[in-house]
Amino acid sequence: MSGKQPSELYQDWADQVNKRLERNPERSAKFETSSGIEVDRVYLPEELSEEYMEKQGFPGEYPYTRGVQPTMYRGRFWTMRQYAGFGSAEETNKRFKYLLEQGQTGLSCAFDLPTQIGYDSDDAMAAGEIGKVGVAIDSLEDMEILLNGIPLDKVSTSMTINAPASVLLAMYIAVAEKQGVSSDKLSGTIQNDILKEYIARGTYIYPPKASMRLITDIFGYCAKHVPKWNTISISGYHIREAGSDAVQEVAFTLADAIAYVKAAIESGLEVDQFAPQLSFFFNGHNHFFEEIAKFRAARRIWSRIMKEQFGAKNPKSWQFRVHTQTGGSTLTAQQPDNNIVRVTIQALAAVLGGTQSLHTNSRDEALALPTEDSARIALRTQQIIANESGATDTVDPLAGSYYVESLTDQMEARVLEYLQKLDDMGGAVAAVEQGYMQREIHDKAYQTQRAIESGDMVVVGVNKFRIEGEVQPELLRVDPSIGQRQKAKLTALRDRRDNELVSQALDDLRRASQTSENLMPYILHAVKSYATIGEICNVMRDVFGEYRPI
Amino acid sequence: MEKIRVLVAKPGLDGHDRGALIIAQSLRDAGMEVIYTGLRQTPAQIVSAAIQEDVDVIGLSCLSGAHNELFPEVVQLLQEQGVNDILVVGGGVIPDEDIPFLESNGIRKIFTPGTPTGETIEFIRTHVREER
Fold it and tell me: Is pTM, for the whole model, over 0.90?
């Protein structure tokens, strides 16, 4: 410690916050309850012990247990970012604009599976999947339509794209350039987390080594050219969806994160060059208090790893900034309106845990992609928590709860045990290759299934409180003509574009792929020549090969 | 009696295999022999694996919404190969209104989210005998 007494440290913190408030005032000059009781910015123990300072500290300060910002939602609410995308770029552009009109504060784009796996819509592998789980993007042309009329210097966009993340980021940069927005002004996120694709989500293309290189190329490029971009969203979300518990979610996510940091350092980057742009993605699941503890524990562990293990000096490198999505696998197909209640509880836990942005699931997602009505209710759920519940008026409201602090400590201890075990195995990449995390997750998923079937775990509407003869609500259907339309568009594009320019750009990319040069400039160049995502990814498939799971 | 042989398959590009893996293990625990294809199988690959492994049942799992395209193709390819004794069932995120279409295209039963694994096991045991 700095040698100062905790009370002096508090004074320092309070002074700093007050200075900051002169520039950035809170949402309200005064916060109070319905009875007129004034609500403090932060509640602290009677006595600020050394132990408190070490484990909790002040909001916005190391070890960030109490949140990454000093005023949290008193300053500004989390970013309300609903994941959306289906069919064509035109349809998704319309849904984006609808969500923004409804008060959403950031975009989050879902791509269809061919796009996520680097296939063009006219590739045989894309059959049946075009536009189904997200929007179909084949070339820069589609991206221009997708983002038409959306000011990219004002709206931040998160893109759930992993193996071909560099291609989609390049398209985004190219569209922004056409809008007159330079890349240093862009803010948003690419998921770009390949390890969890091998572990839990399945949209990998290349083997681990090449994939890690593409990722660190992005870190290096963005540190220079796209400094406000989150270059990765290291995701526990899908690990949890695949069946893990909360401890495994945190442990495997942080093990993956450590692997990325090590890979970036090995590629020659300094930790503080890229670490401030790392971000995380968690699940908001059912166990209310454990979920809150999960966020608090993850922040504490990550800050210590970055400071102590990797020697990061920039406080931004220590911060575990996280997006949350409520738990898709907790939604039931039965009595779908009940899901609104589940989502509310999960979202409130994420807010009390201090998330930076949030997606709330729609009630009908165990049946299909959400309808516009369902998507609106999901957004309203966050708006109600933010504006009506009062949960946003003080920072980290559950700190000091015997239960939550104990859960936070115990989660931390169990996560550290797992991290040690994974480190002994040679780190996350080695563990993935041995199928270790995959097995751990499957075992837990199977236990959960057994508990549901035995009735030990109650799922309302499924194994208790059932209704017979339910009629399903109206569902969203993706227009089946999308496949034909995308293919026709591709044919026209291939006729129209300068194909010599395209082959030149692809040849350059091929050559660079065989060296250790940063590939981002080559991919950007190829994208601007209107090379398609399949063409670009196929060049790299040729050079890098494809991942085959064990 | 010989053990029932089942191919659990993931057609299309969808990477969600929590359900497929749970079904595979549940069927194994119920005494069946189960082969899991892994992700990203084309209908042709699934049919060829089913024939090669001489299975009694194919269980298709799809959560991406591509079931109406991919499931019937599996049945059609089986028929083209002259295979009529394999029971084909499916599961995943499948709206009720798609079920009649799938059943009329040779998928004998669709198991939707929340189905107890015991129900699937029972269905397979009962109907495999009919096919045999």
Answer: yes
